[in-house]
Amino acid sequence: MSTAKSRWADDDPETEAIIAQQKREKEAKRRAKAEKQRQLEAKAQQTQTPETNSHPANGETGPPKKRRRLSNDAAETTGSDADAPEIAPQKKQSTALLRFPAREWGTCRHVDNFERLNHIEEGSYGWVSRAKEITTGEVVALKKLKLENSPDGFPVTGLREIQTLLEARHPNVVYLREVVMGNKMDEVFLVMDFLEHDLKTLLDEMREPFLPSEIKTVLLQIVGGLEFLHSQWIMHRDLKTSNLLMNNRGEIKLADFGMARYYGDPPPKLTQLVVTLWYRSPELLLGADKYGPEIDMWSIGCIFGELLTKEPLLQGKNEVDQVSKIFELTGPPNAQTWPGFRSLPNAKSLRLPSSSSSATSSGKIPLLPRSKFPYLTNAGLSLLSSLLALNPTSRPTAQQCLSHAYFKEDPRPKPREMFPTFPSKAGMEKRRRHHTPEAPKRGQEAPQLDFAGVFGGAPGGDTGEVGAGFALRLG
Ligand SMILES: Nc1ncnc2c1ncn2[C@@H]1O[C@H](COP(=O)(O)OP(=O)(O)O)[C@@H](O)[C@H]1O
Ligand SMILES: [Mg+2]
After folding, report:
1. Given its phi and psi angles, is residue 62 left (phi above 0), alpha (psi -120 to 50 degrees) or beta?
2. Contact, 28 vs 67, CB < 8 A?
3. Ion ligand 2 — residues with CB under 5 Å?
4. How many angstroms separate the CA atoms of 271 and 203, rounded?
5. Distance (Å, rounded) from C-alpha 339 to C-alpha 179?
6. Do the strands 244-246 and 261-262 form a parallel or antiparallel pair, or are they unpaired?
7. Could you write out the DSSP letters of every residue in 314-381?
8. Which of 233, 310, 398, 415 could be joined to 209 by an S-S link, Cβ 3.0–4.6 Å?
9. Do 244 and 199 form a contact (C-beta atoms < 8 A)?
């Protein structure tokens, strides 16, 4: 309220006194109301689960600060869809209700507003096409969600995909424009910006791998997008080259949030059936049901390796074979490099060669064999080795990864505008299916795995291979 005097007040001292009295009363009322509100808020906070309510500020190093989940949803039961979608734990909420940003929601438009141009890909959770918005002529990607596996309503993966994508607005995350509907309730489509390539198809089509300077630009953008997700307490849980999109301006965007979810600290119990096998971390393979964003960093290591060689780094035929392939590359774990791995459910049956305990007595992360990556600099090899550290706590966070010396040494990351362009398969024709494993299906039981055969379990095995300095028998 203006402090200027009433034009009439000077003329009449009595009126002036009344106005002043009214002002005082009004002020007292306002103060009492504010105090009441403050007390109510304090009370509400006391009854709420305490949390520090912070997520890492830019420039801060180290992992995100400790805080608790606010969501009271049941632990994510193995392979079941029983778990309710969770709320963003970093933001104070008075209830544990599913939260959608209000401004984004209204009546969904009909998919008829778009004209289908060509089919792009059928993946595990949806069909993707290139389409044109009829009124504007803009080209978009339409992803039809697969809803058939959820008799009791909208599948949690679809909800999560929409919720996390709406929250994750970042230059390195695919832009979800809107959600549109078909004629039936189970016809739900995500309308996204269209990008010409996914990295898997592109690497398959390229004759030579990316140049070192290009690999840096690609990797920096992937990790930049991931750093943002983790700062929002979102784990992607299915990072792989087919879920990384690239346009003809050298921009990379993380896509496919069908597996993404909010996480907390301490970590909630979650299903281990996440992440496509070849990109799945050893703690998940060994059955950890409490895990964190480090699983995404492992996938980043696998993607880094794939960018270097154009081939997926660890192509296991099944879970046991995947563990064998990992240990063959990294060397087996020991009590120094990965204290506590023995207590993981599937590690009980794991038989390691006796030499493994003396392999790395310093507890330092062992460097991966240089012979596998002959063109990588020492700094590059050290980054790759740390991303592929068996012990999740030894892996760098996305933020630490971004400031690694590898990105600062020559050759410097190539400016995006200097990136070569490639013919777009997605833009022209139906693509052949990649012969790569798919993300785990929700609703499946996590298998009880027997790792007894990973290292010389059964005597007289005939499928022995010599790995990184130790004999390996596949289970
Ligand atoms: N916005 C997009 N622009 C262009 N292609 C896309 C886009 N989104 C997805 N795709 C293509 O469709 C494929 C499958 O999409 P994705 O979201 O990964 O679905 P799924 O959950 O079925 O794996 C991707 O690998 C990519 O080739
Ligand atoms: Mg996908």
Report:
1. left
2. no
3. 123, 243, 256
4. 31
5. 46
6. unpaired
7. ---SSHHHHHHHHHHHH----TTTSTTGGGSGGGTT----TTHHHHTTT-PPPPPPGGGSTTS-HHHH
8. 310
9. yes
**Residue 363: band (very low, low, confident or very high) from pLDDT cuts 50, 70, 90:** low
Contacts of 109 (CB under 8 A, 6+ apart): 178, 180, 181
Q: Which residue owns the Cα nearest ligand 1 atom 25?
A: 242
What are the φ/ψ torsions at residue 6 (nearest 5 degrees)? -60, 140
What distance in angstroms lies between residue 245's CA and the mean position of ligand 1's atoms?
Answer: 8
What is the token pair recorded at 47? Answer: 């009854």
pLDDT at 156: 77
> Given 198, 238, 265, 289, which residue is catalytic?
238
Say how far apart CA 105 and CA 437 lie, in whole Å.
35
Mean of all residue pLDDT scores within the chain = 79
- In the block, tokens 């999740």 appear at 392
Q: Which tokens hold the place of 142?
A: 């339409």
Distance (Å, whole) CA 137 – CA 143: 18
The first and second tokens of residue 312, run together, are 């997926």
Backbone phi and psi for residue 111, each to the nearest 5 degrees, phi listed first: -65, -15
Interstrand relation of 471-473 and 252-254 (parallel, antiparallel or unpaired): unpaired
pTM recorded for the entire structure = 0.74
Decide if 261 contacts 275 (C-beta within 8 A).
Answer: no
CA quadruple 161, 164, 166, 168: dihedral sign? negative
Q: What CA–CA distance (Å, rounded) separates 44 from 65?
A: 23
Domains identified in the chain and CATH numbers: 111-190 (3.30.200.20), 197-428 (1.10.510.10)
> For tokens 């960018």, what's the residue?
307
pLDDT above 60 for 281 = yes
Nearest ligand 1 atom to alpha carbon 193: 1
Are 194 and 130 in contact, with CB atoms under 8 Å apart?
yes
Using one digit for the tens of pLDDT, what is the confidence trace for 150-159?
666 777 778 8
Tokens of 436: 């790569």
